[in-house]
Design a protein that fits this description.
Blueprint: H1 17-33, H2 47-60, H3 66-78
């Protein structure tokens, strides 16, 4: 069987040093992006709890709205944001 040389008898193709680095960087980027990266922008996530939180703060002040603020934070965390 002709073709590309094998590395240490395994089925992996032999790559030059720069090619190996590029593959490793791509793998690191793709695995880092799939861990828990949010799929939406934070401004667009959880519109219902955001609206309730904002209305409460405007009408009653931040101190009176801890319940809505916490509910919005929990929703954002469920969407993958660190807040």
């Amino acid at each position: 069987m002709g073709g590309l040389p094998l590395e240490n008898g395994s089925s992996a193709l032999a790559l030059s040093g720069s090619q190996q680095k590029r593959v490793q960087v791509r793998e690191n980027l793709s695995s880092a992006g799939t861990e828990s990266k949010p799929k939406k922008k934070i401004c667009c996530a959880c519109p219902d709890t955001k609206k309730l939180r904002d209305e409460c703060i405007v009408r009653h002040g931040e101190d009176a709205c801890a319940k809505w603020i916490d509910a919005h934070r929990q929703c954002l965390r469920a969407e993958g944001f660190n807040v």
